[in-house]
Amino acid sequence: MKLYFIVNPAAKNGRCKKVWKRLEKVLRQKHISYEVFFTEKQGDGKRIARQIIESTSETAAIIAIGGDGTVHEIANGVFPFKHGIVGYIPAGTGNDFSRGIRIPNHPRKALEHILLLLKKHCFSTYDIGQFAGPHVQEGMFVNNLGCGFDAQISRKVNRSKLKSLFNRLSLGKFVYVFYLVKELIFYKPAKVVLQIDGEKHLFERTWLVTISNHPYYGGGMKIAPSAKSDDGLFHIIVVDQISRLKILLLFVTVFWGGHTKMKEVKVFAGKHIHIHTSSLLPLHADGENIGSGSVSVYVQANALSVIREKAN
Ligand SMILES: Nc1ncnc2c1ncn2[C@@H]1O[C@H](COP(=O)(O)OP(=O)(O)OP(=O)(O)O)[C@@H](O)[C@H]1O
Prior knowledge:
Layout: E1 2-7, H1 15-29, E2 35-38, H2 44-54, E3 60-66, H3 68-78, E4 84-90, H4 96-100, H5 107-119, E5 123-132, E6 139-141, E7 144-148, H6 149-159, H7 162-168, H8 174-186, E8 190-196, E9 199-212, E10 216-217, E11 221-222, E12 234-240, H9 244-253, E13 265-270, E14 272-277, E15 282-285, E16 288-292, E17 295-307
Parallel strand pairs: 1-2, 1-3, 3-4, 4-17
Antiparallel strand pairs: 5-6, 5-17, 7-9, 7-15, 8-9, 8-14, 9-12, 10-11, 12-13, 14-17, 15-16
Helix pairs in contact: 2-3, 6-8, 8-9
The chain binds adenosine-5'-triphosphate.
Adenosine-5'-triphosphate binds next to helix 2 and helix 3.
Cofactor: Mg(2+)
GO biological process, one term: phospholipid biosynthetic process
Protein name: Diacylglycerol kinase
């Protein structure tokens, strides 16, 4: 098996570059043979992963080093090729994928863990979500897809200069909290028709719809506490008819999953989800902007091989 690393040096406001330097030393000390590639711009992660996978018929372990945006791109490059195995070393702002696959949050510990798992041939299959829509860039997600308020927040965070300031202060995840409070004042809830495995649900004043593959979102919030990434199902969270003040409470309780007890929060599970919106609401997949408006999502069970402990 060949080992590849794809590093986003810009992740976490450039800190990922330093992380790689430290990991490189560990790899050298352990005499591990590997190839490394660096992304230079958006889209490179997918392009490089696809080039690797198309250049070999041997099993290729491709390790993403960066944030959730990096692993999102690399997984999109590897899927649907079965000889590619995706690994992840968290070195970005949010790093929810590492929580989802239970990889240590510390990059060096994550590397040690991955090397051990590779040695033991410890991989397991992982569900992914394919999505498409009239105003959507097609693709798949590994963590979650969101429509509405949360997508608006992640769009603002990604475009924000404050992200680098917060990262410099080691307060990366609080940038989400900052924009949450800001958007809370201006966001207009909208009408949404949700179709889950053929069953229709109408919501009049929807703040957000999140389709989750595992519990974590936005830097450790437990948005879908009982979602599992190997059960062929997504958990769908809808927040509807809620006051602006109570949204704040929701985003506090979401850190331990307590929000699901609120009457304004509906939880569903399903394999094929269609979100129909009356206006062009923003959409994100794994925190990356994918377009806006209506979207169809299908679970592809066990479609991606991931380096992680077997039991989830
Ligand atoms: N060299 C680069 N310079 C600028 N942007 C890059 C580069 N390489 C990749 N990108 C883009 O950076 C974006 C953010 O990447 P990523 O999510 O990995 O980091 P992060 O924002 O620090 O972490 P998180 O997603 O966990 O908040 C992605 O859209 C990715 O395509």
